[in-house]
Amino acid sequence: MGDGLARILTKQSFDPEAFIAKLAIDGEDALLDMRQKVHALNEDTAQALKKNVYKNYSQFIETAKEISILEGEMYQLSNMLTEEKSLMSSMMKLSLVSDKAMVEGPKEEKKEESPEEETRRNLAFLLEKVEGCSSVTEVPGRHLVHDTDLVEVEPETFVQIQRTHAFLLSDSLMMATWVPTRRGPMRYRFQGLYELDSLAVVNVRDAGPIKNAFKILMFPETRMYQADSAKSKRQWLDILEDTKKKKAVKDKQKKEAANRLSDQLSPSPVNSPMGEKGLPSPVFKDAPEEPVTIDTDFLQADWLEELPEDLDMLIAQRNFEGAVDSVEKVTEYLKACPKGPALKEFKARIDHRVKQLTDGLMSELQVSPERSLRGGPRAARHAVTQLIRLAKSAQACDLFLKNRSAVIRYNIRQLKFEGATTLYIRCLCTVFFSSLSDTAKEFLKAFPDHYGCYSAFVIWAKQELVSFVSIFRRQVFESKASLTTIAECVQLAKKHCAELSSIGVDMEFSLASMMDLPIQQVIEETRDQMVEGIKYRTQDELWRPLNLQNKADCDKFVAEMKALGFDVKPYVSDVCFVALTHNTVQFAKSSLTFVDDLLRLYTIELENMIALAIQTVFTAQMQQFQAALKSDKFQSERSTIVKNAQFVGEKVIGRIFTLYQQNDVTLPLQLQTVQMNFRQIK
Amino acid sequence: MSKAKTQQPAVIHKVIMVGSGGVGKSALTLQFMYEEFVEDYEPTKADSYRKKVVLDGEEVQIDILDTAGQEDYAAIRDNYFRTGEGFLCVFSIKEQESFQATQEFREQILRVKNDENIPFLLVGNMIDLKDQRQVTYEEALKRAQEWRVPYVETSAKTCVNVDKVFYDLMREIRSRKMEAIRQNNGKQKKREKKRKCTIL
Ligand SMILES: Nc1nc2c(ncn2[C@@H]2O[C@H](COP(=O)(O)OP(=O)(O)OP(=O)(O)O)[C@@H](O)[C@H]2O)c(=O)[nH]1
Ligand SMILES: [Mg+2]
Asked: What ipTM was reported for this prediction?
């Protein structure tokens, strides 16, 4: 029925006049009936409206939540992508082929760089890629000219043998074979080193199915390699020839210089087409033929050979703990190893990885804006533990605390400052002090027995407190908040700070000393404001009793004062008159609040200052009474003035004494003097 | 990795072209390989070619290393020469100097190979230009006889004796190999095997 009516009423073409006219024909009853119906409909609609609003509201809340979750997910996604990117770029760095050399060929400008630096840079990189090449990298002045992958081909049968990587150095050609079972950057094993002096290169123009091949002849070896393109092969032939020529020129210059020095003992047969008939010195060295020393035997163990690659894998998998385990194991093992070049090389490889591992762990603790802090303290502790095991406790401590600082900053920034200062400070204190106490606990767990680090923690905590206080000051003292609010906030901070001592961190003194000055300032300001207020209000004081108009309001007033601790019944007369002036009542209220706030801020250091401030305020009020009594204007109001003065002197000051007692603060002499002075008012 | 092993004849004869620059080593090689004559002169560095041929009914492969007439470093040349089993020592009949140079090539080959009987042919090229001849047939033959090697005159341009010099040399190489197998039964094979081991 209601629905039917609703449908009619909501029709686009609804004509209220026609509708009513039609109803009116049926008489009064029908109209009354309709009125009822419309009324019911109205109520239903209101209900439905409420429901709809509520429904949409909850939907709105839900959507908002959804959006915030989505936002968080997007954030995380972006983190993951950044991490992925950095992973990729670090993998690119690991990649063996320097694209540069591939694309651009030999670089003329390389000559301009300091050759020493160049060597160290390039050849240290070789050490990482090619196993067993340390003797190659040790030659000063040697640098990398060109390198690419090549496929080695059997020179007689043209069968492809293996993947290799060729490194053309400034004075020699190093070949390395690819080790397919390897992971990590150490993918190649040293195969041979050919000096360029007597290296013969053959351009294989026609080898049936094998395209882009060339041969390297170096007695007793003949090796054939296949480049991946005609261009790459051409490049190899050109660069080889070029490098050989350069080396020859250099050698010739050296030789000439030497000859000049040695006073030319024998004429050199320079222009003979055959040249000197000196025997070429083969320099090819195969890895197993390296001078066998005791340390190489020691390093023969399978697990040791695999270790560098295993470490790479563990680091890549971010299994830092496993990596540190391995490092500890190998360090222990190598202690017993006789010193020798092989050990040195192996150690260099391990050290390199330890550095990578350290970097990885450090970055775990590093705070970067794009990284989520949600890793939390446990992840940090984990990283710290591993760093300590790697004997990097100082760095770990530093980073750990920096990380914690960032967490605190982040958490504080998450707080929204909305209106009420106290509320904000309450949250701020909770966040800050609980973070501080968490850090302390975490620190003790993460650095057990590292007493050297504890002082770092103390210094850190102090610094954090300083930055906390600076936020606190800005929000509390510089925000024109009332003394009441300030007192509440200070109390909150102190309470939280005191709780820290339960875990052995006592910073109350530091906090108090940092807060003292602003507190003193605010006390002075408030005191002066009150004195100003007293003077201002008495300007138009008429010393008339309060007229509360009727009994009800008067009772209400009495109750109100009672709640503040004042019994004003004796001052009531003629039903609705109270023998106190409006200003006196006002003063009673405000001075009580003032003292209450001051006592909340109470410290031994502030004791005297607080007493003096209260004294100043009451003295200012007393002076108003005295002035009024002396004034001719108020001859007839003398009894009221005295009554008011007595109220302040006895009741108000009496309440203040009670407050002191309640706060367990001994009554200062100044206040007793003030009371005495009040009692002299007559 | 795909093994690009097609069914290749197992026997490979390794021939090296030696001689001064511009005498026609590359011309001879290309004529033999592809039956074409290249008019332009482009000095060679070191090129190698492989070809399947039928030598007296037997399928074999010839591996030709075409070297440079001018190579600055003796030590490098040694490395090339070491890989050869037979040599075509070429000069140009219209260039006395190139003929003189054969002496030094011969000496170097003998020193490197340490073998007086190394398969070797003295080749006088460019006989299509007889009118410009500076080296007589007799003096060349005389030298060849001194060395106890055959002397053959060729023209890469008109294709005279080109196949002959390569086939004659291959025959020499083959007979030397047979002889070696007969003499030091299995020694050659052993050496081959050992070499492969070091490679792998
Ligand atoms: N007329 C004629 N010209 C020839 C003959 N052989 C070679 N030539 C030409 O002589 C020049 C040099 O020949 P190449 O075969 O490149 O000489 P090469 O011995 O390989 O020289 P290098 O590679 O520098 O050691 C080219 O211009 C050839 O065309 C020949 O038999 N007759
Ligand atoms: Mg040539």
From this structure: 0.86
